């Protein structure tokens, strides 16, 4: 009799009574440019690739730079990393019109079925960009301690209400005069006790805390007990329109308060 060596389908390992998830856990990673989103995704792939089947979607304005960075990092089969080019406003592609991202996630899930986890990196153009719960089941918001100790306290929907806030690059704190403990305390206050991880790729225990958080979310998702939370729309913000004029607008759900095209 041929032996079966296939890995267990997610949710079936513990007991056949477990509900079978119909798809992967979709996890968004948002935050401003340079805070370390791509690096965090590479880190998670490196830590989890042995035991989870992972796919990655990146969002860039006009390029596939993040996807190329992740492919070259060699942490995952390059075919499992796909880029969505978002055009002018990357925050729109993860919040207001998620069609391109949803199609990319579904294609990846279909091509590599079954996947356990799909990581979606936001374009990272804006401090207050958030993912729609129509696209992801859970989301991480990434801040860089070198961006200043005040950022966590000043808040925003992602900082306040993402499933996890990562205060990244804590190894840089002594060089930029940031008190990480104070920043974590401020973040805890701003987040009403929602999860916060102070992370550095040079600090093993912080990496373990991040992986433990993800394992907890995945376990809840597989058991059918995970509820996607909507952090809320992004705050009003400024950016240039097609003619180079500065426009202020919000992405309050359903609001169409600006006449420039996205
Ligand atoms: N010192 C330090 N640098 C980091 C860490 N994580 C990421 N970086 C660096 O931060 C820069 C921006 O990272 P990247 O992942 O491209 O940011 P993204 O724009 O948010 O995707 C890169 O030079 C990374 O090497 C960290 O834990 N410590
Ligand atoms: Mg990136």
Automatic annotation (TrEMBL):
<keyword id="KW-0996">Nickel insertion</keyword>
<dbReference type="Pfam" id="PF02492">
    <property type="entry name" value="cobW"/>
</dbReference>
<keyword id="KW-0547">Nucleotide-binding</keyword>
<dbReference type="InterPro" id="IPR004400">
    <property type="entry name" value="UreG"/>
</dbReference>
<feature type="binding site">
    <location>
        <begin position="31"/>
        <end position="38"/>
    </location>
    <ligand>
        <name>GTP</name>
    </ligand>
</feature>
<keyword id="KW-0342">GTP-binding</keyword>
<comment type="similarity">
    <text>Belongs to the SIMIBI class G3E GTPase family. UreG subfamily.</text>
</comment>
<dbReference type="InterPro" id="IPR027417">
    <property type="entry name" value="P-loop_NTPase"/>
</dbReference>
<keyword id="KW-0143">Chaperone</keyword>
<feature type="domain" description="CobW/HypB/UreG nucleotide-binding">
    <location>
        <begin position="28"/>
        <end position="196"/>
    </location>
</feature>
<feature type="region of interest" description="Disordered">
    <location>
        <begin position="1"/>
        <end position="29"/>
    </location>
</feature>
<comment type="subunit">
    <text>Homodimer. UreD, UreF and UreG form a complex that acts as a GTP-hydrolysis-dependent molecular chaperone, activating the urease apoprotein by helping to assemble the nickel containing metallocenter of UreC. The UreE protein probably delivers the nickel.</text>
</comment>
<protein>
    <recommendedName>
        <fullName>Urease accessory protein UreG</fullName>
    </recommendedName>
</protein>
<comment type="function">
    <text>Facilitates the functional incorporation of the urease nickel metallocenter. This process requires GTP hydrolysis, probably effectuated by UreG.</text>
</comment>
<keyword id="KW-0963">Cytoplasm</keyword>
<dbReference type="InterPro" id="IPR003495">
    <property type="entry name" value="CobW/HypB/UreG_nucleotide-bd"/>
</dbReference>
């Amino acid at each position: 009799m041929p032996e079966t060596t296939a890995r267990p389908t997610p949710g079936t390992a513990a007991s056949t009574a477990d509900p079978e998830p119909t798809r992967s856990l979709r996890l968004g990673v948002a935050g401003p440019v340079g805070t370390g989103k791509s690096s965090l995704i590479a880190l998670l792939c490196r830590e989890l690739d042995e035991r989870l089947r992972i796919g990655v979607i990146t969002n860039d304005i006009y390029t596939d730079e993040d996807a190329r960075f992740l492919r070259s990092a060699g942490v995952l089969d390059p075919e499992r990393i796909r880029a969505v080019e978002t055009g002018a406003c990357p925050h729109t592609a993860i919040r207001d019109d998620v069609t391109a991202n949803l199609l990319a996630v579904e294609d990846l899930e279909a091509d590599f079925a079954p996947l356990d986890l799909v990581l979606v990196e936001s374009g990272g153009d804006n401090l207050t960009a958030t993912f729609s719960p129509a696209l992801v089941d859970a989301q991480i918001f990434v801040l860089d301690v070198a961006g200043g100790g005040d950022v966590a306290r000043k808040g925003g929907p992602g900082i306040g209400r993402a499933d996890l806030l990562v205060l990244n690059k804590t190894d840089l704190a002594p060089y930029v005069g940031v008190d990480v403990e104070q920043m974590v305390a401020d973040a805890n206050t701003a987040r009403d006790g929602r999860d916060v991880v102070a992370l550095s790729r040079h600090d093993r225990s912080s990496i373990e805390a991040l992986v433990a958080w993800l394992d907890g979310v995945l376990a809840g998702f597989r058991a059918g007990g995970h509820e996607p939370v909507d952090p809320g729309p992004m705050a009003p913000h400024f950016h240039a329109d097609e003619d180079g004029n500065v426009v202020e607008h919000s992405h309050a759900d359903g609001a169409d308060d600006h006449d420039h095209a996205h």
